[in-house]
Amino acid sequence: VYADALTVEAARILGREDVLAEVRSIHEKALADLLRAMDRGAIAEEGRRWIPGTPGKTSGSRWGVLYAAFPCRTLPPDHELIIGTIWKIERRISAGGQPVGIGWMKDGMWVAITLDNLGEALLTRDEGDAAVRYLYSTINHGPPLYSWCEERGQEPGSESTSGDRQHLWTPVAVGRFVRDLLVMEEDDTLHLARGTARVWLEAGQKVGVKDMRTHFGRVSFGISCDWEERTIGGFIRIEEGTAPHTALHIRLPEGWKINGDTDRNDLAGGWIEADIFRWERLTGEVYFSAGIDCQRRQ
Fold it and tell me: Which helix (H) or strand (E) holds 234?
């Protein structure tokens, strides 16, 4: 069904009016069927409903169920089935911070799913703190990136494994997730620093990317905090394109917040919504700065 959606988008972009109505009809019918099947096959448990791997079946792998939120966007990230499925996957968490029993091993961990399914879904819900915790946990459960196993036991150095011995999907999931927590496209919005760890800014280092390829052009950005002056500042540069909407997520350490009195001129025409700096039709290079306040209890 997602492929059908992309076919519709491609026909629209290419101006293929001769096939657009047909492929749109195919997609709409298939999507309606899928939504009915998902609703009918969902599992009700403790006041929630979640998506199983097979309609109506409570056992088996959880692989792919959260693709309904991302990248397929079959359901919005705040849909009850997405919320319930996240709850179901997170019901059993290992001491090392990984969901347990979501693959074939009853007490094992499939760490690729942690990022590729769960972490990405959390990013689309702007739950960056939870998402980045899973990044650290996943990396802590892997050897060098070229030799991850598909599933493994919970204990350090576990020899209990299942599936592919060199499961290259896992390092791909790690790389993709790191990219998305820094730079992520969603419809016509470019999200920057959507899931960065709050301690990265606390350490006084610059957080950002250089010459990242995106749907909206080549993107570079950098942000850093001056804790003595109580300011945050940086730049965004978009080359070879324009972002219709840009959202820079300011993920300050706990107890700090952006000063709401920041002048719009300090944001190069942008504005503040809660902890996000926003711009429209951003292209070229802009510099910005804002005050930050400490709300920590003494």
Answer: strand 231-249
Residue 142, both tokens: 């892997």
Instruction: Report the distance separating Cα 172 and Cα 164, nearest Å.
Output: 15
Contacts 24+ apart (CB under 8 A), 127-130: 128/181, 128/194, 128/195, 128/196, 128/249, 128/251, 129/198
The model's pLDDT over 118-130, given as tens digits with 9 standing for 90+, comes to 999 999 999 999 9
| Whole-angstrom distance, CA of residue 43 vs CA of residue 64 | 16
**Which residues are paired to 247 by β-bridges?**
191, 278
CA-CA distance, 276 to 194, in Å (whole number)?
Answer: 9
Which structure tokens are listed for 15? 């101006």
| DSSP code for 252 | P
Q: Which two tokens stand for residue 52?
A: 């199983």
Give yes or no for a contact between 103 and 150, defined as CB atoms under 8 angstroms apart.
yes
Q: Please give the backbone phi and psi of residue 191, each rounded to the nearest 5 degrees, phi first.
A: -95, 130
- Using only C-alpha atoms, what is the Rg of the chain? 21
Distance CA 93, CA 181 (A): 22
Low-confidence ranges of the chain (pLDDT < 50): 297-298
User: CA nearest 86: which of 40, 51, 110, 61?
Assistant: 51
Q: What pLDDT is stored for residue 141 in this prediction?
A: 85
Q: Where are the beta strands (DSSP E) in the chain?
A: 43-45, 48-50, 151-152, 161-162, 183-186, 189-192, 207-214, 217-226, 231-249, 256-258, 271-273, 276-294
Nearest residue to 99 (alpha-carbon basis) of 91, 64, 164, 68: 91
Q: What is the bridge-based pairing of β-strands 207-214 and 276-294?
A: unpaired
Rounded to 5 degrees, φ, ψ at 150 are -70, -55
Q: Which two tokens stand for residue 193?
A: 């620093």
CA distance 67 to 1: 12
CB-CB contact of 215 with 242 (8 Å): no
